[in-house]
Design goal:
Layout: E1 5-10, H1 13-24, E2 35-38, E3 48-51, H2 53-56, H3 66-72, E4 77-79, H4 83-98, E5 103-108, E6 111-115, H5 126-141, E7 145-150, H6 153-160, E8 168-170, H7 176-179, H8 193-201, H9 207-211, H10 215-222, H11 224-234, E9 252-262, H12 265-285, E10 289-299, E11 304-315, H13 318-332, E12 338-349, H14 362-382, H15 401-407
Parallel strand pairs: 2-4, 7-8
Antiparallel strand pairs: 1-6, 1-7, 2-3, 5-6, 9-12, 10-11, 10-12
Helix pairs in contact: 4-5, 10-11, 12-13
């Protein structure tokens, strides 16, 4: 049986969702004017989160500082993000999509894959069905989507990225030479800027040129695993299934960008402890323990550094993890001003705790474990904001509103921290 996969992607989701609400309230449609969803232009961390097509014509780019966007387009209309609204819109959009497919995979807040394989008797014309889904979302919810159709997830997602908005596109294997191979190599899914630069230097500028290269040469250039994957993708090969249930996490991490530079241990430690508290609570919720702990930071010169340690055993105790986090930071930070800090827990296991002498005695471990269990129970019943550690209450660098909200949320609904 031939596979049939749809990829459905909301067009400029945050902007569309904010616009749909404004239109209902009788306000201007942000999609029709130079507009964006973004942060405070007076703050370093204020960035463009989503932009309208008219704003794009002025050169406004997603991810760039708001101050730069306003210099490009002084008439740019900016609205602040509304994450509660976005969550409601995402759920409504996915509810419609789920009603059409036996299996739906949520790929992000504004993207889904539908496995439509075997639905030919119910939906004999896939293109007509895609238009029906697209139009239903537009008419009932007030925003538009693109739908890509193919035989695998890679090609369906590539197709949905063709001309926007409010379009249906196909990219079946026999269409690859005409529709995909002429594209610049950086348009290939999961191929980043640095990889594209390496390929360009090797004389490979289009996806077709990558597809017609020797795989061994690509592996030599990019590494065996990455080279094999990108060579396969360039030839339209992807066997990954559409999964209604996501894979278990391989780790837990959090990163936070700051409005003010971090210049002292006294500033850094409360933030690192809060981050450790967040990721450790998520890990305990899933019944996991970690065997590897890492910290990462970014200087004001945008140099990224990381440092990690592998434990002799495993732990899920916040204080024990933070003891390692603190040690790693003291070892690796040379005092340069920082704008980002992060903590990551990996090498997950469900095994029982093994004593780690660098932290606490077995008696202390039990005491701290019970404290964590009590804190988790309070947060589960009353909310993550109801209890915190006293040592995190000291003066620390300002962080964005969304980062604060998510750092306080231990329910695990968002595993990334955004600073907007």
């Amino acid at each position: 049986m031939d596979r049939l996969i749809f990829h459905i992607d909301v067009n400029s989701a945050y902007l569309s969702w904010s616009s749909a609400k404004r239109v209902k309230e009788g306000l201007s449609d942000l999609r029709l004017i130079p507009a964006c969803v973004g942060g405070d232009p007076k703050k370093r961390t204020g960035i463009v989160v989503a932009k309208s097509i008219p704003a794009k014509q002025y050169g406004v780019k997603t991810g760039e500082p708001m101050a730069l966007a306003l210099r490009k387009c002084p008439s740019l209309v900016s609205v602040r993000p509304d994450f509660e609204l976005y969550d409601r819109c995402s759920k409504a959009f996915k509810k419609i999509c789920r009603s059409y497919a036996p299996v739906m995979e949520s790929f992000s807040i504004d993207e889904v894959f539908l496995d439509m394989s075997g639905t030919g008797y119910v939906y004999p014309d896939p293109i007509a069905t895609a238009h029906e889904i697209k139009d239903k979302i537009r008419d009932e919810l007030g925003f538009t989507v693109n739908v890509g159709i193919s035989v695998n997830k890679l090609l369906a997602k590539m197709a949905s990225d063709f001309e926007k908005p409010d379009k249906v596109h196909t990219l079946f294997p026999d269409e690859i030479p005409a529709k995909m191979w002429p594209l610049p190599v950086e348009k290939l899914l999961f191929l980043g800027k640095s990889t594209a630069l390496k390929l360009n230097r090797a004389g490979i500028h289009t996806i077709g040129e990558l597809a017609h290269s020797k795989e061994a040469d690509i592996q030599k250039l990019l590494g065996q695993k990455a080279g094999h994957q990108l060579f396969s993708y360039a030839n339209g090969i992807d066997e990954t299934p559409v999964k209604s249930v996501p894979d278990e996490p391989k780790g837990y991490s959090v990163e936070t960008t700051f409005e003010d530079d971090i210049v002292s241990f006294e500033q850094a430690f409360p933030i690192l402890l809060t981050q450790t508290d967040v990721v450790a609570a998520r890990m305990r919720r899933d019944g996991k323990k970690c065997g590897c702990i890492a910290i990462s930071f970014r200087t004001t010169a945008f140099k990224n550094k990381s440092h990690q340690c592998t434990l002799e055993g495993s732990t899920d105790v916040t204080d024990e993890i933070f003891a390692c986090v603190r040690h790693l930071f003291e070892e690796s930070w040379q005092g340069e001003p920082l704008r980002l800090l992060g903590v990551a827990l990996t090498s997950l296991t469900e095994e029982e705790y093994m004593q780690i002498s660098m932290f606490h005695s077995a008696e202390d471990h039990v005491k701290h474990q019970k404290m964590d269990q009590a804190v988790d129970a309070i947060r589960k019943k009353f909310g993550g904001h109801m209890i915190g550690r006293a040592s995190t209450m000291s003066t620390s660098p300002k962080i964005g509103r969304k980062a604060k909200a998510q750092m306080k949320n231990n329910k695990g609904e968002n595993d990334e921290v955004y600073d907007i």
